[in-house]
Every structure is written in structure tokens, then in C-alpha cells.
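Recap quiz, item 2
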Amino acid sequence: AQTVTQSQPEMSVQEAETVTLSCTYDTSENNYYLFWYKQPPSRQMILVIRQEAYKQQNATENRFSVNFQKAAKSFSLKISDSQLGDTAMYFCAFMKPLGGGSQGNLIFGKGTKLSVKP
Amino acid sequence: NAGVMQNPRHLVRRRGQEARLRCSPMKGHSHVYWYRQLPEEGLKFMVYLQKENIIDESGMPKERFSAEFPKEGPSILRIQQVVRGDSAAYFCASSPRWGGTTEAFFGQGTRLTVV
């Protein structure tokens, strides 16, 4: 069974600085998808960034980028120029592709609580 | 185009009562996933439904929990005879098709409190 581990329960960063959130996962699959979701105090789950395992290039979305190390099964999220609005819980998630019993459901880590301080 | 709508946002039930949670997927989406988030935990998959069909309920407790997604109307997650351990946030996500790189859109969740 797949598992997702986020080893940092809480982190803090000063506004405008850079922070990296770590995520490791365990799978025997060769092809899969990885995601980072943000959950602010409103509880809304917001997709931040996604990565297809077959793509070697790291995904980037504005101030958010990932460091995807497939062999190490590591998928860290880097937030540059941190803003107060980045304060939230961040969840790493794994999804198998279709077929072979996979139904497209997400497997989440326990989350990292990020606080951006002014 | 409204997002995924869940209601109610907050639900309080006494032990032994029934809880009904509703999820209206985004327009054009025929695939719905339900997840449960316990305090200080990540989301855990419960059930996956398409219109009028339960496709995968491997994450759902065997007793007291049921889900449906009728041809017309919202998807319903029903919890009978609630207990304190059912207190959690329940999220619904919808997708136009399952898997692949299609983003799953989440609702704002229903926070169930059992007293």
C-alpha cells in the first residue's frame, strides 16, 4: 500500500523568505501523480502544484516549485518570497493512475502547519 | 460556474442520531469522492461514486456509513447512530473524469460534531 510521510508537523518562516516543506512516499508503482494541497483556516482544500512521475522536469507555479527526486521517493515543496497569505496547512498527496484497481483517489500525508511571520 | 458545494458547513448531532451530509459537484462532473479528516490528520479516502453507482467504498466503515449519488440531486453521505468518534470534517471532491492529471475540486467541507 502507498504511504505518504510529512516529517515536519509545524514550520515557520519570515515574510519574504524561502521555506521548504518535505514529503516522502512509498510505492512500488513506476507511474503516478504527486500533489501539494493548501488548507487555510477556511478549511478549503486548494491545489498548489502537481507533478507527473514520468516527467523529469520539476513543476513550478509562480512562487511555488517542487524538488521531485523519484529514486529517493521525495517530493518537497519550496515557497519563495513567502507571504502572510501562505499561512496554512500543507498536505502532500499521492495518486496512482487509472487501471489496476486504482480509482483515482488521493492518499494524503498528515500535513505541515506553516506560519508566515511578519 | 459554482464550485463544489457542501452543506451544511457545520452539523451538530447527539449520539445515536443520524447525520446527512450533502455534496453538489461542479457542473459537468460525474465523479465524486468523499474524504474524512480527523483532528490533526490528513484526509482519508472513504468512497468513490459515479452517478447511480458506488465504484469503490474500500475506505468506508462497514457499519453505519452509506453513500449515494443519485441520477438527480446531490451526493449524500449518511451516518447512522453517530458516535463521538465520528466527529470530523468531511470533504467531497468532484472530477469530470477519474485519475490522470485531472484536478479534483474540493468543497469546503462539513464539520460534524457529535455531542
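The first strand of chain A starts at residue 3 and ends at 5.
Chain A has no helices and twelve strands.
End of item.
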